[in-house]
Amino acid sequence: MNGQKANAMMLTGLMFRLLPIQIILSVVGSINGIVSGFFASNYVGVEAMSAVGIYAPIHMLITSISTILVGGSVILCGKYMGKNETERMQNVFSLNLICSLLVSALFILFFLLLGLFDLTGFLTKDAAVRPLLNRYFLGQAIGVIPLMLGSAFASFLSLENKGRLTLIASLVYIVANVLLNFLFVQMLHLEAFGLALASSLGMWVFLAVQAQYFFSGKSQLRVDLRRLSWGESGEILRIGLPGAASNVYQTARGLIVNRLLEAFVGSVAISAFAASDSILRFFWSLPGGMIAVSRMMISVSVGEEDRQTLTDVMRVMFRRFLPLMACVSALIILCAEPLTRVFYRDPSEPVYMMTVWGFRILPLCMPLSIICMHFTCYGQTSGKTGLVHLLALLDGLVCVAGFTALLIRPLGMNSVYVANVLNGVVTTLVIVAYACIKQKRLPRNMEELMVIPDGFGVPESERMDLSVRSMEDVVRVSERVQSFCLDRGIDARRAALAGLAMEEMAGNIVDHGFTKDKKSHSVDVRVVHKDDDVILRIKDDCVPFDPGERAKLSDPDDLTKNIGIRMVFGIAQDVQYQNILGLNVLMVRI
């Protein structure tokens, strides 16, 4: 098996290993929507469901700002992780938390003013819905802080390979949310306020479970206010804003669509859309988890200037993620009526069939959205701000709101559903058109479709990828590394040292790392010739092992202790180790 194929297989395995946790992170918000919708429609009434739907764009606005901060911070941290710049990682983490708290305080004040002084008239004119919406805002004010900080902690825990803690927090949250809704809505009859209060208190539980890790002293990322540099905040916003712009536009889109539905169909249409959307958000957790995994891999790849891994991430998206999402979409369509009965059971009511058609049409846009999300993330990370802003504007506002306005008279409620599907078609065509314009021809491979600059990373002629699965492979790789160096004019001494360093470190992984568990492992080896330096990168999926720490622990009087590791540290110009997303990554510069 060649090195590129082995690297792709390792990457695919890693992405699918991280995927379940990221899906569950996305599920948290959707479970809240389903639970709130169930109690609203069954124990309060259709008007309460309308209040939930009207609040949705405001929730999207909070999510948008959180996405700006989290997206920019995680991408920056991933880059600094790829470059092993620990202090800058700590600073970005600290800035994220401080900014999240400041934004939360502003939203809390805004929600209190809306709810206490009946200022929600710009959202709805329905006299039956408005009092419920006021009380709903008051309950939601309590949960703004944990909503902002909880999403940040979830992303940072994934960077530290501690996603299981978020998994636990998510499960605890789901249980707490159901119990609190039962208490506040069904038993205490707090209606809309109880719906929001249950969600808010549940989010505090979610936050508390995650936060304990960062206060335990075990985390790599820690808050350090003494050396805080606000200069990075501008970079966080610059990177995070394009990727989150779609959410900002979706806030405006939600307000526009709600007004169109209320004017041409009635508030019952908002209830139908809120019902179908709350269930579909559960399934949206799948593409949400996919893009969360890909975002981490893309940011680290850009930091390392790893051209091969960057394109492999996109290949995994097209070959694995896209077909999987298509199957899930087909399943939703087949189950349209059973899903509708979670909220509405009487087929004679107009809201029933409006909701059914939501489940029959909206899932068609899900596979297409995965393409848009991945290219938006890649453009955000690589500085293609023009493409990112264009996709955000089309996806978040223009297509859905525009097509809805054009189709609402002939199609009524279904205009919103059809508009979402047409939106996916348009954004996919724009991605291909962008590549055609930049390349001045139809893209012939993944690199051309992504429009990766020629100067990114090192050319294929100056790197070599190999795979190690046994001790026999170790010797073969060592010989090929030495030949690679000699062919590029590296002197015989350094070429021999490069081969020896690779043999020692790869052999150590096979001897010790492969035997720690019963799983199948491989070592991804890359040798790069850049600026007259030989850079060796050894990546494996075994248990975490830092050779630098092992070298420090060695007894200087016992020259035979860890002799191979000590030799490599002695002959190398620089050695750096990181555990990135569960992978051991060793960089040796000769």
Compute the average pLDDT.
Answer: 85
Uncertain runs with pLDDT below 50, 5 residues or more?
Answer: none
Main structural class: alpha+beta
Strands ordered across the widest β-sheet: 1-2-3-5-4
Number of helices: 20
N-to-C series of helices and strands: HHHHHHHHHHHHHHHHEHHEEHHEE
Q: Main sheet?
A: 5 strands, antiparallel
- Give the radius of gyration: 26 Å
Distance between the termini: 27 Å
- How would the global form be characterised? elongated
Total number of beta strands? 5
- How much β-strand is present in the residues? 5-15%
Helix fraction bin? over 70%
Number of domains: 2
Structure characterization notes:
The model has no long low-confidence stretch (mean pLDDT 85). A hairpin with a 2-residue loop joins strand 4 (574-580) and strand 5. The chain has helices spanning 3-44, 46-83, 86-116, 130-141, 144-159, 163-187, 191-214, 231-264, 267-304, 307-334, 336-340, 350-361, 366-382, 385-411, 414-439, 446-450, 471-487, 492-513, 547-553, 563-571, and strands at 463-468, 523-530, 533-540, 574-580, 583-589. The chain has two domains: 3-223 and 232-446, no CATH class; 462-589, Histidine kinase-like ATPase, C-terminal domain (Heat Shock Protein 90). Strands 1-2-3-5-4 form a five-stranded antiparallel sheet. The chain is elongated and about 85 Å long. The protein is built from 20 helices and five strands. The chain is α+β, with helices and mostly antiparallel strands and 590 residues long.
